[in-house]
Amino acid sequence: MNRVYLASEDSLLLRRVLQRFSGQSCLEIGSGNGGNLSVLVKSFGFVVGTDLVPPEMPLGGGEFVLADRASCFRDYTFDLVAFNPPYLPSEEVEDPAVDGGRDGVDAALAFLEEAVRVMKSTGTILILLSSYNPRERIELICRKHGLTMTLEESERLFYENLAVYAIRRAQQ
Ligand SMILES: C[S@@+](CC[C@H](N)C(=O)[O-])C[C@H]1O[C@@H](n2cnc3c(N)ncnc32)[C@H](O)[C@@H]1O
Prior knowledge:
- This protein is α/β, with parallel strands linked by helices.
- The protein has one domain: Rossmann fold.
- The protein has helices at about 10-20, 35-40, 105-120, 135-145, and strands spanning about 25-30, 45-50, 65, 80-85, 90, 100, 120-130, 145-155, 160-170.
- A seven-stranded mixed β-sheet has the order 3-2-1-4-7-9-8, sandwiched between helices. A two-stranded parallel ribbon has the order 5-6.
């Protein structure tokens, strides 16, 4: 049985970065209990989250679709696509809230491929990664799609470093 992810340090770091962005439309892939959506509704006209598990709390704003990643949306739809993927290294995915597969990056890569598809050409992707995750595998996919990756903010916890990166089309 899948469980709802409860907001943690990673959620709060992503939330701080989200406050700097605005636009017409925004998607959070893997929106958990919807806390990040309630921040995004203050600066975006349309806000939606997807997850494999419905939120347990009433949404503080925005819409929710029970869906795999961004599979329910058309190409080039969103100004911002954000995600805090499951990122713990795991042999198998037993708990989709936290298990990220090989290097903890398989889930992030799958989210990223979908985010690239649904973001507008002028859009931005925000991705949260941990020091458990080799960034090179993400950078490789970015290069393949002509995207650049820049650090927005990081935080050192006693057991890991967390960082949020912005990913955009290289020519912007
Ligand atoms: C680390 S939690 C982050 C939750 C929330 N965004 C936050 O920051 O607190 C990762 C979320 O991704 C969701 N998830 C995992 N695989 C998914 C998939 N294929 N499609 C949509 N959501 C998925 C999990 O259920 C979980 O809610």
